[in-house]
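Narrative summary of target 7.
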Amino acid sequence: METDPYPLGIIYRSETEKTFEENQAPYEAGDDTPLYARTPALENIRKLLA
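Modeled conformation, tokenized:
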């Protein structure tokens, strides 16, 4: 029998992981920044360069 990585059906969600709706919200608000460019580190770099 395989060991279940998520015992009792608990799904772990990291602090940085967002739902589909959270990721779609900026697009719907008119921000067309690609998802890969939305990481906190890149946002901080963008602020420093501005």
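The helical segments are 20-28, 40-49.
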